[in-house]
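Re-run requested by the PI after the first attempt was lost when the workstation crashed. Everything re-entered from the original request form. Ligand of interest: 6-O-phosphono-beta-D-fructofuranose.
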Amino acid sequence: MTDVRCGADRCLIDMLSLIHLLMLIQMLMLIQLKFTSECTMKIGILTGGGDCPGLNAVIRAVTQTAMREYGATVMGIEDGFEGLVDGRWRQLGERDVNGIIGLGGTILGTSNRGDPWHYPVRLPDGSYEIQDRSQDVLNNFRKMGVDVVLATGGDGTMNIAKRLIDHGMPVIGVPKTIDNDLSATDQTFGFDTASQIVCEAIDRLSTTASSHQRVMVIEVMGRYAGWIALHGGMAGGADMILVPEIAFSWEHVFANLQNRQKNRHRFSIVCIAEGAHLPEGGEVIRELDNRRTDAKQLGGIGAVVAKRIEEGTGIETRVTVLGHLQRGGSPTAFDRLLATRYGTAAARLACTGQFGVMVSSRHGEIKAVPIKDAIAKTRTVSLDNDLVMAARSLGVSFGNE
Ligand code: F6P
């Protein structure tokens, strides 16, 4: 009798354990369901700072991955952080992102005057007052009902993202900028397209320069880093590359160009980054605009350098400022793919609840790094960079020797 009762008790205990185990498995399946196929996540996405080719490819990849793979809802925030301050967003669907992979600009709009802690508000008399509107951002974030905001942008956007994270708002960063100056990632999208445009422009300038035996100065973008000048210049075969990281002297610039002329080179191409520093000191600033996240609007160094070259060498010199041509239009295949990989990775991170990070490319692999690492320092051109060394081997001057 005793044995039979013991057997029944054991059987009851086994059944209860089995029920507990089944309940546990069910709970785990429910959790997995929330973060995978049947995700009830709502994701916000914005594009901040200067636009660049590839932004639409990110918006497309995020929307499609989030909807198709996770069943999530995607809200497009308009005009960068301005849309979060003012409460402007719209739901994105498959049709909104269909066919936009090759489209330049951003279908969401962007702004480099959207810093919530330094927000320019237009007063009735037309002047602007700088206000702290960060609380509006936090309120609108709650109102929109999203779980996380994907902030696609450069250093300015990542700095704002970091501050919002510190205030408790979940954010994931996606690195973009034609300048390619964000640390913690090997490459930002937009840079390859900009370099390609610079290369094509130099090809064109070279034929007219050769016909007239001129020096052609081409001013390209790059506020704090000379990556566009270096890559675009090298690809186009520039003879001199002037970047913010390497101080140049007039003496060396003139001597190099005069030597080329003496050696019967019919023309010289000087590719200069807008952020390069004049030997007498400082950048050439076109305008200071306190409403911008970064007040300095650079531009004009090409004209200054061209004038000095003509005066110092006697060689007829012309200047071309490529400006926003470097940012507009279709992304290259490389930028489309990088943007797509970033977008897909960011959507996956969002739908699996991994916030406070930035997607990054390291040795060809897409990873997630803490946003604070991305803003720790500017990624600049170093003297031992392999392309700088290759340039030196080819006799390309950096105006410093
Ligand atoms: O940061 C990207 C960039 O294109 C810089 O190279 C350039 O200095 C800046 O944006 C120009 O900004 P904006 O379009 O506001 O004049």
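Saved to the shared folder this time. The CA atoms of residues 239 and 396 lie 5 Å apart.
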